[in-house]
Specification:
The structure is a homodimer. Chain A has eight helices and three strands. By secondary structure, chain A is mainly α. Chain A has a domain of 117 residues: Arc Repressor Mutant, subunit A. Chain A has a three-stranded antiparallel β-sheet. In chain A, strand 2 and strand 3 form a beta hairpin. In chain A, helix 3 packs across helix 6. Chain A is globular, with a radius of gyration of 21 Å. Chains A and B meet through helix 1, helix 3, helix 6, helix 7 and helix 8 of A and helix 1, helix 3, helix 6, helix 7 and helix 8 of B. Chain A binds a DNA duplex through helix 5.
DNA sequence: ACATTTATGTCAGCCATGTTGACTTTTTTC
DNA sequence: GAAAAAAGTCAACATGGCTGACATAAATGT
């Protein structure tokens, strides 16, 4: 409440730019560089939160990302994960193998389509993923509290608007779907070792909609 | 103005959380996971902007970061860069050598302390750095415009608040110092091949204050 | 004057995580 | 039964972190 001194570096907001919008008038000399750098420093701190834990078990950020999204989308296919992470099958395969071998992720053949490997977290994996979410949520919560009551929606809107327009829809759907599933799970049965009830993703039919980006 | 559909995934704001703040009541089941993920997707897009250009000249993101901060702090020392980037001398040395060899960065011995190598961008380097700033500023400007007139300060405050408390001061000072220098430069002489007037960093004496973090 | 510290650079090697390309197996779909 | 899809694998390579060990030049302290 008394630590934020943002205006220390900001020029007088909008009037009197000193230099009259040099060469083009769009995004060159304007003080948006500060936001570029704040984004860099903020994200670096943000991702460094889980690093300590990860290092203790010989994992890296790639493992974190996989754990996170499998946690959010229990029963997801490998292809779904590839669509979200946008890395190659080989890169994913490396970390996924370690996570399965060490008992953090459970990979079972799909019931309806036995080519698929449906990914679930083991209790061990869930505990770890929950640790990460808790850590990073603390940081976000603290930040939002310092920014006042309305900051949450503004921050959300800002982050969404920073995403490529063609990705926004899929990303928001992805988040919405995960939220719905989590809600259904907690309001339903006591919720452990969830049955693959009704095709855990997509749920529209045999071919669940891609989580992110239909094609590249 | 009509494209943002943030509320598609958000539960009814604050009341009726569905699950009554399970196990601890702080940052576990609360819908802050969406912000975690939005931050991930937003930052991925954000850093991918310059990638296309970088790939064309055989550079990577490490080169981008070096170019950016040398651009913002002309005449900075190698140590300053290390403090900001928080990587090892060896890692920095690799990309710095390439940037100097290929004529993007000029590395001159300091006048008062000839051990120092003061880093400046060449015109070629400046042009490239400016390209990156323009690209990323476009994204930010677009995002802020979509979020309304007050979003800029909120976004700034949010990003600052996401930074580790002990880093905020140094980071804000860093940004303020760069802004001041840029201002002085544009308002001063016609502004080319700037003289090392008055010790380009710190300016308090022989030992300029560290840009970020006095001690690792 | 000499010892120490500081700023920088460099060699060598390792690790994590991304990439491409080629190929296999299993299963589903047409 | 052919083609396509889901997954996995091997090999090789690139980027960009890391550690450890040194080397050199210049400033600083005694």
């Amino acid at each position: 409440m008394a630590d934020i001194n943002v205006s220390a570096s900001s020029r007088p907001a909008k009037g009197d730019p000193g230099v009259p919008a040099r060469s083009g008038g769009l995004g060159e000399g304007d003080p948006l560089v500060d936001v570029i750098e704040l984004f860099f420093f903020a994200y670096r701190n943000f991702v460094s939160d889980p690093d300590e834990i990860l290092q203790g078990i010989g994992f890296g950020r790639a493992h974190h990302r996989v754990l996170h999204f499998v946690n959010r989308h229990p029963g997801m296919r490998v292809t779904d994960l590839l669509d979200i992470l946008r890395i190659t099958k080989q890169s994913l395969g490396r970390v996924l193998r370690e996570l399965v071998d060490q008992g953090f992720i459970d990979s079972r053949a799909g019931a309806s389509d036995r080519r698929q490997r449906l990914l679930h977290l083991t209790p061990k994996g869930e505990a770890l993923a929950q640790q990460f979410v808790t850590l990073q949520s603390h940081r976000i919560r603290r930040a939002l509290e310092e920014c006042g009551p309305d900051s949450r929606e503004t921050a959300r809107r800002f982050l969404v608007a920073m995403i490529d327009p063609e990705d926004r829809g899929p990303v928001e759907k992805l988040i919405a779907r995960a939220d719905q599933q989590a809600e259904a799970k907690t309001s339903g049965a006591s919720g452990k070792a969830s049955p693959p009830a009704g095709g855990s993703l997509g749920a529209t039919g045999n071919r669940p909609a891609p989580l992110v980006r239909p094609a590249g």
